[in-house]
From TrEMBL:
<dbReference type="InterPro" id="IPR003736">
    <property type="entry name" value="PAAI_dom"/>
</dbReference>
<feature type="domain" description="Thioesterase">
    <location>
        <begin position="49"/>
        <end position="125"/>
    </location>
</feature>
<keyword id="KW-0378">Hydrolase</keyword>
<protein>
    <submittedName>
        <fullName>PaaI family thioesterase</fullName>
    </submittedName>
</protein>
<dbReference type="Pfam" id="PF03061">
    <property type="entry name" value="4HBT"/>
</dbReference>
<dbReference type="InterPro" id="IPR029069">
    <property type="entry name" value="HotDog_dom_sf"/>
</dbReference>
<dbReference type="GO" id="GO:0016289">
    <property type="term" value="F:acyl-CoA hydrolase activity"/>
</dbReference>
<dbReference type="InterPro" id="IPR006683">
    <property type="entry name" value="Thioestr_dom"/>
</dbReference>
Length: 146
């Protein structure tokens, strides 16, 4: 797949368009086969019992898949999640960052389907698996019929 945005462009996009979360996440790698993103785990990501919360893991998967799609279509800020499924498989470590390894399974004109495996850094088994479908809005020229 052709790469339209590399990791630096994606991180700059997040900082500009999503400053409320940009410091928590980092796109670490982009390739033709996928993308790796990091959640910098902090105390506000933890739940009782000393583990990373489900909503924090879901947010990482959503952001990582969103960036994996943007890496291929360019900076389309209005691309939105239309379907999501997540399986929590293991308890993530509390004091360790989480990494999401994504791959885009299908990239169409209107819909994109992708998946992410989430790992506690340094551990081999995934803690969660997520699949998502995104709606990609038409380009402005398509909206106007140009």
């Amino acid at each position: 797949m052709t790469i339209m945005m590399d990791k630096d462009a994606l991180n700059a996009f997040l900082a500009r368009d999503f400053p409320q979360v940009a410091g928590q996440y980092l796109v670490e790698a982009v390739s033709g086969s996928g993308l790796t993103a990091r959640l910098r785990v902090a105390d506000d990501h933890l739940r009782p019992g000393g583990t990373v919360s489900g909503p924090s893991m879901f947010a990482l998967a959503d952001l990582a898949i969103y960036c994996a799609i943007l890496a291929r279509v360019g900076p389309v800020g209005l691309a939105v999640t239309t379907n999501a499924s997540i399986d929590f498989m293991r308890k993530p470590a509390a004091g360790v960052d989480l990494l999401a390894e994504c791959r885009v399974l299908k990239l169409g004109r209107v819909l994109a389907v992708a998946e992410a495996l989430i790992f506690s850094e340094g551990q081999g088994d995934p803690v969660a698996r997520c699949s998502m479908t995104y709606s990609i809005p038409p380009k402005s020229s398509e909206i106007r019929g140009v």
